[in-house]
Specification:
The complex is a heterodimer of chains A (492) and B (1191). With 492 residues, chain A is an alpha/beta fold. Chain A is built from 13 helices and 17 strands. Chain A has helices spanning 8-27, 30-54, 80-83, 100-103, 144-148, 166-175, 185-193, 254-275, 278-301, 308-314, 324-336, 355-379, 450-460, and strands at 68-74, 127-130, 137-140, 153-160, 203-208, 234-236, 341-346, 386-392, 395-400, 411-414, 418-423, 431-433, 435-436, 443-445, 448-449, 469-472, 475-478. In chain A, the strands form five sheets. In chain A, strands 1, 4, 5, 6, 7, 8, 11, 12 and 15 form a nine-stranded mixed β-sheet that branches. In chain A, helix 1 crosses helix 2 and helix 2 (30-54) crosses helix 9. By secondary structure, chain B is of the alpha+beta class. In chain B, strands 2, 4, 5, 7, 11, 13 and 15 form a seven-stranded antiparallel β-sheet that branches. In chain B, strands 16, 17, 18, 20, 22, 23 and 25 form a seven-stranded antiparallel β-sheet that branches. A five-stranded antiparallel β-sheet of chain B has the order 3-6-14-9-10, with no helix packed on it. Residues 1-35 of chain B have low confidence and may be disordered. The chains are: A alpha/beta (492), B alpha+beta (1191). At the A-B interface, helix 1, helix 2, helix 8 and helix 9 of A face helix 1, helix 26, helix 28, helix 29 and helix 32 of B.
Chain lengths: 492, 1191
């Protein structure tokens, strides 16, 4: 053991080093590392890295309610009016002009700002009332399965955002800032929590190609920004290697890889002994983890051990890699294994025109799987500590973009209000928060901004969003920038 | 598997920022506290504490300032405030801050709890105590005072760098590590100066030299002699590309490809010629503004164009113009000044003396570029986004001048209208038109809906006046005599006084939804009879959005005909053909209602003239088909077996019905699908339908020329009219078909059966010789209705058909134009800075928002006062700014640049926060050394090579990288540089090194970026369908093995193996890369095709070189690690080789599979088993730290 320092600075440092050591041990695959390296080497690791690492190793501020997150991002901005935000009176206003008192002359995208009039397009879809923990919640006929788990869901009907176009809006949703450069939500969580599984990445990203109009995704949505790049999201792919470069080349067996790794470790061990370089030891540990990942990831991605009941739950599409159903099931498997943050993207929600037909198909692809995910997490006892978040980057306008008919319409981007829902992980189940006006255009009750949602998510994970900071370019940066208030009403 | 919580991990531990500040304090205080009486230094010891805990509320930012108290300025801090002083020099008792930081009363204590700032710890308090007692002296921030050259301390070392460092090491009582083994130093030099390790031959050659200063000579050789000099430039450019955020795509939305690599090549040239750093700076910031700027200097200004730009349809110009200027300001400040200027975009800087107004003055240098905020979308992935310039290669400028002259001559020759030919043309037209004629008519009445007034003018036209409502119908009655008429012509006249546009919308456009006509005999007021039109022709229609003129024909929906008035000036003309003749000899009244009812508000016509006419039946039979735009539905999955037989539905469609669904898919309009070109459709095994509406004024047989990938079926009105079941790639003119088209409206459906791979189709009609194709229809119109432009088009159309001499002249012009286009396409363009003629006004933006300029805070260009003043006579532009930056008056640039050079060699800078020299940045580890280097750099004429030689010739650079346990214990962060810091190679160098040791590296300087190995599908999964960087088309041959700085950089999906090894995404300026260790890195080195191939080729090379196993293993090891292996290491390698040999001998199929990875040819002279075994050993050696770490 190292001495306890009389000097308070050294003592505090020492205290921190010990935590750090434990962190690293678990991050790196505890036992092999500790046994193989020994205390002398640990000393050198600490000696060299402690100061640098102190800047990158925060601790939780209180006991977490959620241990992990599954974030289902609906890319393109699904229409809240056709899914969640029930406005029965709009039928009477079909094709009437949106009153100026509602529109208030605010910014429109250049796609509809030239439009001569803004005719109200009521949703074509019927809504039903589903039981929840309050007096029920109205949900569109497009989401019947989701309706069946309404008593688990917490609806936020009063979300709003600053951006009006996809790129800045998604960047804002995922990084807390409209312009590129900040770390993503998942990267912050990875930075804050480190890994809970020695064989899998902390932050995984799954992408499903949608049916409707698809917007671009960018690596920055799951990037690490100025955080160390180890926190960037790891994309799990549905074709080819599930993790890039995972598979050994043809002609190389597991035993070959083991033999090669033993040889490499042998050389590196000698190198570490001569140089006392902690980084070399860290690389030995990381290579061992890579070796384990080569087995754990295919096992993870192979759904064949799931029973028929599970496929009945998620739907038969779950057997087809890359579908939303398969990715929901995969998200459950990742969470089950302790992956901290699973980011799932469903592309194709950008319905500027032809909305009814596209939304039918798009909703069908997500409804049953997302409901199944909630049920599955529940029956496995995982829901209470898994935070599930569902939503796009903005909502859509109540007025039609392009021609409006009884059977067809389109909707433009609408940042002023939209609906998201959360479940599990310390969220109050079966409630709804916030209201929009009769047109689903402005918020009339309890606005929630994107920063607030981020603050709440971090809070559930055990962090004070104002204190989870990273020093960069002379200032402490945080996910919520200078804003964000925890939405206490939805915390159980 | 155990989760961390379950393992009893503490969930609460001391707060991070406490620890962080403790660490920071420990680092600096340990240096300060040599003895109890030692003086504290404000800059080194005190300011970091004040800055971190106090300045947020008591500093620069006037908006956030609490109690109107500033602690960052001596006069303010020590001012008497009602008998109290925040800081009373010399007296603790009278200093309020001392009372506050000591206080246990939460209301009194500073910093307050709500600030989230931790209290000062004992050591920090001690510093404050001594500072006050010692007189509370303030010092200006060290980095804001221009450096002067300090004298190096006395000492035996020759190199001044060592004299500074040795003094420090001695003061700390440390014993530095000994000089490293010379082979280590040689490897260090090669890696640091060229990014590639020495070959065994290079190492041997060096070690054989007898020169006592052979290491210094080596450094010089690596920088000045080929081939190392080019490699050196490539190595030096790499961190600069990070800082300048260089990439090959725009980064946002479509993430379209761009051409800016000539700027990257300029950087390479600059390093290769050792361009002085001041010139390097000035040309990049203001090369375009230099008097008589050369092409190269303008290219250099591309530095400020490397930022991301958007083409997302909904974006607003002003919004992104602000982002672009802000990015330039931030990058310039970070890269050259080491300042985080962007912190002052929304409010006064919290820590540095930069007010928000000063920020916008600095920003104002960068916001007058001749650019849009929102860029248009074009298919060209090599586009240079405006402003751009051409960068002619050798001989290209001359060739262009020559072609331009040829074009001018050919155009002149073409213009010479032969009078004979003109006469022939007139005669031909007169004969061809037969009995066609226009009748004289007059406007009987004209009115319009929604308040528009129509005034009838003397020339027979009507002019719209008064308000311009969202929608309006114009109703015009013509009165004339004559029967058997079928033609109605509508001229939409443009007014030169209104921008020569035909529409009343702000942009000059108009959309006509329909023309409804009724006629009656003049003497029967109620006998109206509707005229049905079956065919039409216009001289111009707006294709984007699908506003084709045929939309006005019956059954074609509500979109209407857009005149494209915003795209092209001049009048338009529409000719409608009635199904049945109309008119009475005794007189006719024709009422035409021009409906303008689309969703496009105010898109109405300005001035209209109508006329009625008769057409000879023979002419009607010679009119071409009227056609709509292409629509596509699909892809539909299909298998080879049934794709031709399967009818998914579009085969039988009669119209393009956008609400129709075929297996859940609907029609999508494709403006980009045109005739006479191969239109690409979805790849894979599938069916895609492309369809368009056609209108035939008479039954005729149409000959078409087709191409398809793979097979094709053509349906007309639900009937199969052509088929070719074939597997092929689409080319122009693969099939010919004759299709019988009955009179009337039809849907033409092109069914593309794709049996795999790319998909596409080609369609072109072959007009009959006597057909009035294209502009020939204009012959029907009276001359006055044609206008000059249309008249010329008609003449050209006629000559093309009937005048061989004209056709020859035309072809001469076309060919010269084609040659020029080809030359220009081959001539690289690059993005540059270009100032607008009229400077954009700059206002401080409230909260940094583009739409909130503060009208009262107009900003002129200027620099923050804390950094000094621009010399008198400086020009008020980027050039003036750049020259000041490069001058001796600038306090930061030399320090920042010298520090960055230092960081390249010692892993961290002397100021460890390389990107931040402001008040929150770290105090330099060796301030005197930094200033000495900065002044030396500047006074040497900014000679970068000289600085590199100086640094690499120091003892400090040549020390061993093995730290003793004692050194580690006493100076864990190596602040004294008593040993040489180890560093894992950057991503690019790890790959380059593998290629180099294998002998695969293809060395070619510069040029367009290349696409080496990358797993399939990475781009498609994130890109938009229309993106021109959606598909990664892997390069061929040499492109696979170029140095990594030439790898194509798509920002939305950067090269994965580079990101895995900590390369930044290049979306914004990055000054310092992190260096992490992750399992994914091991996976790259093991399994990336690139590395597996390199291992195999390294193995091949080793086998080719001969010798026994041990000799070969030693040589292979030496190539990678640049030292001889120890006997024990060689034993391990030999054992591993034996193991792999045995393993592959037992499974030769596996051996064969392994050696076939990669495109490099497999050597035939070695057995696969042997090669595979050696490949595994080579792969191991490419993985070990001895190879990937610079020690």
């Amino acid at each position: 053991m190292r001495p306890i320092h009389a000097d308070p600075v050294r003592a505090a440092l020492h205290e921190h080093e010990l935590t750090l050591t434990r962190r690293r041990l678990f991050a790196a695959g505890a036992r092999t590392f500790a046994a193989g390296v020994g205390m002398a080497a640990l000393g050198s690791l600490l000696g060299r890295d402690a100061l640098a690492a102190a800047a990158s190793a925060p601790q939780r501020h209180w006991r977490p309610k959620a241990k992990r997150v599954i974030y289902l991002h609906m890319e393109g901005g699904p229409s809240h009016l056709d899914l969640w935000d029930y406005k029965p009176d709009l039928r009477k206003r079909y094709n009437q002009d949106l009153p100026e008192s509602i529109r208030k002359g605010q910014r429109l995208t250049t796609m509809t700002s030239g439009q001569g009039r803004f005719p109200v397009a009521p949703s074509l879809f019927a809504f039903s009332r589903y039981q929840n923990q309050e007096d029920g919640v109205w949900i569109s006929e497009l989401m019947p399965h989701t309706g069946s788990v309404a008593d688990e869901l917490c609806f936020l009907h009063s979300m709003h955002t600053d951006a009006i176009n996809h790129e800045p809006a998604i960047t804002f949703c995922q990084t807390g800032h409209q312009q590129p450069g900040r770390p993503s939500l998942g990267a912050w969580v990875s930075y804050g929590l480190g890994s809970a599984n020695a064989n899998l990445p902390t932050f995984c990203v799954l992408i499903t190609q949608g049916i409707g109009n698809m917007q671009a995704l960018s690596a920055r949505f799951w990037g690490s920004g100025f955080l160390p790049s180890e926190h960037q999201g790891c994309r799990l792919r549905s074709s080819g290697d599930p993790v890039l470069y995972l598979k050994d080349p043809t002609g190389v067996s597991r035993a070959d890889r083991r033999a090669m790794l033993d040889l490499v470790n042998d050389f590196n061990e000698r190198e570490a002994q001569a140089s006392l370089d902690g980084e070399t030891r860290a690389r030995i540990a990381q290579a061992e983890m890579a070796y384990r990942m080569q087995m754990s990831v295919p096992e993870l991605a192979d759904l064949s051990d799931e029973d028929d009941e599970t496929f009945a739950l998620y739907g038969e599409e779950a057997r087809k890699p890359g579908t939303f159903a398969a990715n929901c099931l995969l998200a459950r498997r990742l969470s089950e294994r302790g992956v901290r943050f699973v980011q799932l993207y469903m592309r194709g929600w950008d319905q500027h025109g032809n909305l009814p037909a596209e939304m039918r198909a798009q909703s069908k692809a997500v409804d049953q799987p997302q409901a199944a995910l909630i049920k599955d997490l529940r029956r496995r006892g995982l829901l209470d500590e898994t935070l599930v978040v569902w939503g796009g980057e903005f909502g859509r306008t109540v007025y039609s973009q392009g021609a409006l008919s009884e059977t067809d319409y389109g909707r433009d981007h609408h940042p002023r209000c939209f609906t998201m829902w959360c479940a599990g992980g310390g969220i109050k189940p079966g409630i709804a928060l916030g209201k929009t006006d009769d047109y689903g255009y402005n918020i009339v009750e309890r606005p929630v901004e994107v920063h607030d949602l981020h603050a709440t998510m971090l809070s559930l994970m055990g962090f004070d969003h104002e204190k989870l900071v990273y020093p960069f370019q002379g200032r402490d940066y945080r996910l919520t920038d200078v804003s964000g208030r925890v939405v206490r009403e939805i915390v159980a | 598997m155990p989760l961390r919580e379950d393992l009893g991990m503490p969930s609460t531990t001391p707060h991070l920022s406490i620890l962080w500040s403790l660490c920071a304090a420990a680092a600096s205080a340990s240096a300060a506290f040599a003895g109890d009486d030692a003086r504290v230094s404000y800059n080194r010891d005190v300011r970091p504490i004040l800055s971190d805990r106090c300045f947020l509320c008591h500093g620069m930012d006037s908006a956030k300032r609490a109690a109107d108290l500033r602690l960052d300025v001596a006069e303010e801090a020590t001012k008497d405030r009602d008998g109290l002083r925040a800081v009373a020099p010399g007296s603790l008792e009278k200093s309020e801050i001392w009372a506050r930081i000591q206080s246990s009363d939460p209301d009194e204590h500073m910093p307050p709890a709500e600030s989230n700032k931790p209290a000062l710890d004992a050591r920090e308090k001690e510093i404050i105590r001594r500072w006050i007692e010692q007189g509370a002296e303030y010092e200006p921030h060290w980095a804001f005072t221009p450096p002067t050259r300090p004298a190096p301390p006395a000492g035996p070392a020759e190199n001044p760098i060592d004299r500074f460092l040795d003094a420090h090491i001695a003061a700390k009582g440390l014993v530095p590590a000994p000089q490293a083994d010379e082979t280590r130093i040689v490897r260090r030099l090669f890696l640091d100066l060229t990014g590639l390790p020495p070959t065994p031959e290079e190492l041997d050659e060096h070690m054989a030299s007898a020169a006592p200063d052979r290491l210094d000579r080596l450094a010089t050789k690596l920088m000045t002699e080929e081939p190392w000099r080019t490699r050196h430039a490539e190595r030096m450019a790499l961190p600069w590309l990070d800082a300048a955020r260089y990439a090959d795509t725009n980064g946002i939305h479509m993430d379209a490809g761009r051409t800016l690599w000539p700027w990257r090549d300029w950087v390479l040239d600059a390093y290769e010629s050792n361009m002085p750093f001041d010139q390097f700076l000035v040309e990049q910031l203001a090369g375009d503004l230099l008097p008589g700027a050369t092409v190269a200097q303008k290219v250099a200004s591309g530095f400020n164009r490397n930022h991301v730009i958007t083409d997302e349809g909904g974006a607003i110009d002003e919004e992104y113009l602000v982002e672009y200027a802000a990015d330039r300001a931030a990058t310039t400040a970070s890269v050259f000044l080491g300042l985080t200027m962007n912190c002052a975009r929304c409010h006064d800087h919290k820590f540095d003396p930069i007010s928000q107004d000063e920020y916008y003055s600095f920003y104002a240098y960068f916001n007058s570029n001749e650019e849009p905020g929102l860029y248009s979308q074009l298919p060209d992935p090599k586009r240079a986004f405006e402003p751009f310039m051409e960068v002619p290669g050798p001989g290209q400028a001359e060739r262009r001048a020559e072609l331009s002259a040829r074009i001018e001559a050919a155009a002149r020759a073409l213009e010479q209208d032969d009078p004979d030919e003109a006469r022939q043309r007139e005669e031909w037209l007169a004969a061809a038109l037969g009995s066609s004629r226009w009748v004289d008519s007059r406007v009987a009445s004209a009115k319009a809906t929604n308040g528009v007034e129509l005034e009838v003018l003397g020339d027979g036209s009507v002019l719209a006046k008064g308000p311009n409502p969202d929608k309006s119908d114009y109703e015009v009655e013509l009165s004339f005599a004559g029967a058997g008429l079928r033609l109605l012509a509508l001229e939409a006249l443009a007014d030169p006084a209104h921008g020569d546009r035909p529409g009343r919308a702000e942009n000059g456009n108009a959309v006509v939804s329909r023309v409804v006509a009724n006629a009656r005999p003049a003497d029967q007021p109620d006998a109206w009879k509707e005229i049905e039109f079956e065919w039409l022709w216009v001289d111009h229609e707006q294709v984007d959005g699908g506003y084709h003129a045929v939309n006005m024909l019956p059954g074609m929906g509500d979109d209407g005909w857009a005149l494209g008035g915003h795209q092209r000036e001049g009048s338009r003309v529409l000719v409608l053909l009635a199904k049945e003749p109309f008119g009475w000899e005794g007189g006719t009244v024709l009422r035409a209602r021009i409906e303008q009812r689309t969703i496009h508000a105010r898109h109405t016509l300005r001035q209209v003239r109508l006329r009625a006419g008769a057409i000879d039946d023979a002419v009607a039979a010679r009119l071409p088909l009227a056609k709509g735009g292409w629509h596509v539905v699909g892809p539909f999955d299909g298998t080879r077996a049934d794709m031709y037989e399967r009818r998914i539905g579009p085969e039988d469609a009669a119209t393009i019905d956008r609400s129709a669904r075929f297996s859940e898919q609907g029609w999508a309009y494709r403006a980009d699908f045109v005739d006479g070109r191969v239109n690409a459709t979805a790849g894979g095994s599938n069916i895609v339908y492309a369809a368009r509406q056609v209108f035939a004024p008479s039954e005729r047989e149409v000959e078409v020329s087709l191409g398809s990938d793979d097979g094709v079926q053509v349906y007309l009105g639900g009937k199969l009219v052509h088929e070719n079941r074939v597997d092929r790639g689409a080319q122009p003119d693969q099939d010919k078909a004759r299709i019988l088209v009955p009179r009337g409206r039809h849907l033409l459906v092109f069914k593309i059966v794709n049996t795999g791979g790319a998909g596409g189709y080609y369609w072109r009609e072959l007009p009959r010789v006597d057909e009035f194709a294209g502009a020939m229809v204009a012959a029907l119109l009276p001359r006055e209705a044609r206008g000059k432009a249309l008249d010329a088009e008609l003449a050209d159309a006629w000559r093309t058909r009937f005048s061989p001499s004209w056709r020859a002249r035309r072809e001469a012009l076309d060919s010269a134009r084609g040659d020029l286009a080809a030359l220009e396409a081959a001539m690289p363009r690059t993005m540059v800075m270009r100032e607008r003629e009229a400077r954009r006004e700059t206002h401080t933006l409230m909260r940094g928002r583009y739409d909130m300029p503060d009208a009262k805070r107009k900003r002129e260009r200027g620099i923050p006062a804390a950094l000094g003043r621009l010399p008198a006579g400086s020009s008020d532009d980027r050039l003036g700014l750049a020259r000041w930056m490069a001058s001796a008056e600038n306090p930061l640039v030399a320090r920042v640049a010298a520090n960055r050079l230092w960081e390249q060699f010692f892993a961290t800078g002397l100021v460890r926060t390389t990107e931040d020299f402001g008040l929150q940045g770290e105090y330099p580890l060796h301030p005197e050394l930094l200033d000495w280097l900065a002044v030396e750099y500047r006074e040497s004429g900014w000679d970068t090579r000289r600085m590199v030689a100086l640094i690499t010739s120091s003892d400090a650079y040549r020390r061993s990288s093995n730290a003793s346990a004692e050194l580690l214990e006493r100076d864990p962060q190596n602040t004294a540089l008593a040993w040489f810091p180890r560093k894992r190679l950057p991503a690019e160098h790890i790959r380059d090194q593998a290629l180099h040791v294998a002998g695969l590296l293809v060395e070619k300087q510069g040029g367009p970026s290349v696409k080496p190995y990358q797993p399939e599908g990475l781009w498609q999964e994130v890109a938009m369908l229309q993106s021109n960087t959606r598909v990664y088309e892997r390069g061929m041959g040499d492109e696979l093995w170029r140095r990594s700085l030439y790898t194509y950089w798509k920002r939305a999906a950067p090269p994965p193996s580079m990101l895995t090894f900590d390369a930044p995404t290049r979306e914004f300026c990055n000054i310092r890369r992190t260096s992490t260790n992750t399992p994914l890195q091991a996976l790259v080195l093991w399994n990336d095709e690139q590395f597996v191939e390199a291992a195999r080729v390294l193995a091949t090379r080793t086998l080719d070189e001969g010798g026994d196993d041990r000799a070969r293993l030693a040589r292979m090891f030496r190539r990678c690690a640049v030292r001889a292996p120890q006997a024990e290491e060689l034993d391990k390698l030999e054992a591993a080789l034996a193991r792999f040999r045995q393993r592959y001998a037992a499974a030769p199929g596996d051996a064969q599979a392994l050696v076939e990875v990669g495109e490099a040819p497999v050597a035939a002279n070695h057995a696969a088993v042997e090669l595979a075994a050696w490949t595994m050993v080579a792969s191991s050696l490419l993985n070990i730290d001895a190879t990937i770490v610079r020690s």
